[in-house]
Amino acid sequence: MTGAILEIGGVTVAHGGRAVLQIDRLAVRRGEILAIIGPNGSGKSTLLRIMGLLDRPARGEVRLDGRAIDWGRGLLTSRRRFASVFQEPLLADTTVERNVALGLTLRGVPAGEARRRAGHWIARFGIAPLAGRQARTLSGGEAQRTSLARAFAIEPDVLLLDEPFSALDPATREDLLRDLQRALRETTLTTVFVTHDRNEALRLGDRVGVMLEGRLEQLDTPEVVFGHPAGPDVARFVGVENLLPGRIASAEGGLLTVDCGALHVLVPGELSIGRSVILCVRPEDVVIRPASAGSMRDSALNHLRGQVAELISIGPQVRVLVECGQPLVALITRHSVVELALKVGSPVTASFKASAVHVIDRGSAG
Amino acid sequence: MELIWDGIRQAFLLLLGMDREVLAITWLSFQIAATSTGLALAVGIPLGTLIALTRFPARALVVSLINTGMGLPPVVVGLFVSIFLWRGGPLGFFELLYTPAAIVIAQFVIAAPIVTGLTLAAVQQIPPMFRLQMVAIGASRGQLLWLLLREARLPMLAAVMAGFGGVISEIGASMMVGGNIRGQTRVLTTATVMETTKGSFDVAIALSVILLAMTFLVNYLLTALQQRRRPS
After folding, report:
1. Hey, what CATH topology would domain B2-226 get?
2. I want to staple B136 with a disulfide (CB 3.0 to 4.6 A). Which of A84, A100, A322, B129 is the partner?
3. CA angle A180-A182-A185, nearest 5°?
4. Domain boundaries, chain B
5. pTM of the complete model
6. Mutation target vs A (from B123, B137, B232; most A CBs, 10 A cutoff)
């Protein structure tokens, strides 16, 4: 693949005879943010350790810039092109500033230069007042900020994040996620981000990979992965969603209008105009009515006109794909299908409440 | 009670009067203990670190042996060092028995397991993930070792104190391999025993006070170093 900075192929890792990781091929594109999601124990961290050249797989190869990794003499040089942040930030017993500069010190960067670069990232992650503090006196969130600054200061070719927010309380996580999002947009750093939280993946990932039981089941854009899961197991894990990428077009009285290209969607929220978002709508929240029915006037309701493109029975329910500028999936009862006499090509109105939309903020334009 | 006060006064007189023999004994005691502790550190720190970081068969046995070694009776050490250094012994040709070097060897054997065991414990209490994270941010093998020892530096100062405290105060081995020869191998502990058996309690007390003062001073300096950054 062109533009792949890091590739792994034919990698197998087994513990006690059981394969915990089996990846045929995975290529990380230069400059992308690749989110890998999966439940606990699905092999995500093992994969990340192999990507960071921290573990050598029993079988398979890792290629950096198209060249196979030399696990002998050249390993340190290759490994130093990476920086990792883990769920539990472990810092050296010294000041915050020295911890942030540690990756640079280890690489032989002169002290003055190291301090300058560390200072920049300390400020970026909002820990400037703590720079002189001893690392062991920090709270969990502060330590994770230090750990992130330590990784960014290295200015690696590839940044690896292993569940960096899982151990934090929701408020701290939200703050840190926002700072990380901003830092990533600024640097266009190639990033692999492992998480079991699909919201984090949706928020940060340019592409999303789903790992289940050691296998990479699907790897695609968030819209495809969450909207069209490759199989029932993936669907079960990601939770089928309608994902509509868009931009805030206007904001009025707690109601936002999101421009999703062919259609406009009303959602509740407080975000500034121009911000890039992904809207999530669960299929069971989408109501289908015949297009002929008069449209109700309701400011908090979204009505999208379209045509039925596909009907698939799933047990007692039917998955209806409506093409309305953007594909929208609705999950309705078999009874409703009969009542509405739905078939492929039927003109319909798909409706969902503004309050049923989950908004994921992808940050400002750019 | 009066005996003790007399002894303490005598000690000050001996010290203030710069009694040559007492000063020489004190200095020799310090030199021998410092040398043997230094050698024990040179061997024990790398060895303890190595054992802490590696997994090998019979590791549990080795660790148990080291822990046992931490409580090695000095007389047993004295006995075996004597046998080795004896004129007819395996190392007899070095003619070290009844020299300060013999005491250093015996004290090294006493201190090395203490330093090794405490280093092992100090390095082992660092979470294994710390090693992974340091490697992940670019530490080479040597840099990783340095970072680990730096992380363990506070408990390792305890290893230095325990090692030095163990050898400066031990008597059995110093007596057996040194022989308490005046002007050559007489150290504070052996001199104290001798003065006590002679009934010169005042001198014995003086020597004890000096021994305590020296041990205290060394520990005080190391503790100050260890506790320097506590409050923050």
Report:
1. MetI-like fold (1.10.3720)
2. A84
3. 105
4. 2-226
5. 0.80
6. B137
